[in-house]
Amino acid sequence: MKSKRPPGLLFVLITIFLDVMGVGLSAPILPKLITNIVGDVSTASYYYGAVITSYALMLLVFSPIQGAISDQIGRKPMLLFSLLGTGLTYVALTFAPNLPSIFAAQILNGLTGASIAVVGAYIADISSHEERAKNFGLMGATIGLGWVIGPGLGGLLGMWGLRFPFLFAAIITFLNLLYGLVVVSESHSEEHRRSFSWARANPIGSLKLLRRNKLILSLAAIIFCNDLAVQSFISTWVLFTTYKFQWTTVQTGLSLALLGLITAIVQGGIIRLIISRIGEKRTILLGLTFSIFGFLLFTVASAGWMLYWIIILNGFDFVVKPISQGMLSSQVSPREQGAVQGALASQTALSTIIGPLLATNLFGYFTGAHAPVRLAGVSFFLASFLVAIALSLALATFSKNSLQTSPHREL
After folding, report:
1. How many CB atoms lie within 10 A of CB 370?
2. Residues 89-111, buried b or exposed e (16+ Cβ, 10 A)?
3. Could you give the CA distance from residue 74 to residue 122 in angstroms, rounded to a whole number?
4. Is residue 191 part of a domain?
């Protein structure tokens, strides 16, 4: 018998789709905008890494706060607050005249940008234990679809100027805000709400939630290493393809759109088929294995057309996070979903601080005038190494047969 879709799931998936599509619009544009301001791609890589870090640092601090607040007042108000901040960010980027104004816009974006964490809590609220991995997979597929349309459209809109995609993103974000205000229903029932606590809402206290037991800690570590690898890849993709193959905004946008399409196909459909046949643990191991080889292949590609085929291979890596996140969310009570999803968002923000900062600086060093050897794909070597660590952790965790659900116990 076909399972019934939980109430509100379609609404929140549309919400996050529009949100991510706006983010995707700027992906092929922002590195080139910074390059135009500073003069060359190697120097721009350092500033671009710093811009990403400023955003992620704010996200690290404020995601657990917003997640904990959503446990008290509900998910919908925090989603609307996040969308308002994102829309204002795109308005600021549309008119930003220099690097300081770009930094200020990204700081605002990070300060209000907890939509992913709150949507994760929303999905956990409305999902049964059996459906969580699949629904988190749908969330990942929706994000992937946003990346299909967003970067491709951003690359095309960039032909009319590097500012125009930000204006378009602002418009659709404010439309998304209006949609959420009118249509999206609240998912967090009154009986499952709890009072706000700074002990749970600060980043350190929030991350402590991920140390509850060995299973949660191991799954969080696997997600973290995988996120670091993805951030190392994404943050240098436009820089890498511009430096090595002289790609335009259209080419970089289309390549990111292909990555989003593969992600959507894998997370929206293939993930369910594979889980039903080999189980969640083996699917994670398979995804990590494909990813290691995929990142290594990027480093040896000698022509731009090869990258598209490697993206298809590497897209299977995106089964790892939704399955791990679904397993982890099943280990905590409904009253804690917002705080735990906020903790995961903080961890993701931490990976967005470390991964791009390390990867862009490595790229800048190994493509700069004083590089001992020119190695534009150095960040992909780093990504492959990080995924290998995640695979080792997964093998150690799953071999201990530790995936039995423990009773919910609140902290």
Report:
1. 5
2. bbbbbbebeeeeebbebbbbbbb
3. 9
4. no
239-294 pLDDT per residue, tens: 899 888 998 878 888 888 888 788 778 776 777 778 888 888 888 898 899 899 99
The CA distance from 83 to 297, in Å, is 37
Choose among 406, 326, 388: nearest CA to 130.
326
In the numeric block, the tokens 């959503």 are attached to 70
Residues 31, 48: contact at Cβ < 8 Å?
Answer: yes
Q: How far apart are CA 306 and CA 294, in angstroms?
A: 12
Contact status, residue 115 vs residue 16, Cβ threshold 8 Å: yes
Alpha carbon distance 239, 256 (integer Å): 13
Domain with 211, as residue range(s), is: 9-185+199-399
CB hemisphere CA count around 212 (13 angstroms): 24
In a domain, 1, yes or no: no
Chain centroid to CA 82: 15
Query: What 8-state DSSP symbol labels residue 375?
Result: -
- The set of residues, in sequence order, having a beta carbon less than 8 Å from that of 260 and lying 6+ positions away, is 24, 143, 144, 145, 146, 147, 148, 149, 150, 151
Reference 261, options 323, 304, 312; nearest CA is: 312
Distances in whole angstroms, Cα of residue 17 to Cα of each of 9, 115, 332: 12, 11, 26
Non-local (6+) Cβ contacts of 106 within 8 A are: 51, 52, 54, 55, 58, 89
Domains in the chain: how many in total? 1
In this structure, what token pair is assigned to residue 394?
């997964």
Cβ proximity of 295 and 383 under 8 Å = yes
Q: Who contacts 382 (Cβ-Cβ below 8 Å, separation ≥6)?
A: 229, 232, 358, 359, 362
CATH number of domain containing 31: 1.20.1250.20
Task: Return the residue matching tokens 């300060």.
Answer: 111
Q: At which residue do the structure tokens 């700081």 appear?
A: 107
**Torsion angle of alpha carbons 110, 151, 183, 140, nearest 10°?**
-80
Choose the weakest-confidence range: 112-116, 287-291, 362-366.
Answer: 112-116
Q: Is 253 domain-assigned?
A: yes
Q: Which of 40, 61, 37 is nearest to 352 (CA)?
A: 61
Domain assignment of residue 70, yes or no: yes
pLDDT given for residue 403 in this prediction: 43
E strand or H helix that includes residue 297: helix 271-300
* Predicted TM-score (pTM) of this structure: 0.68
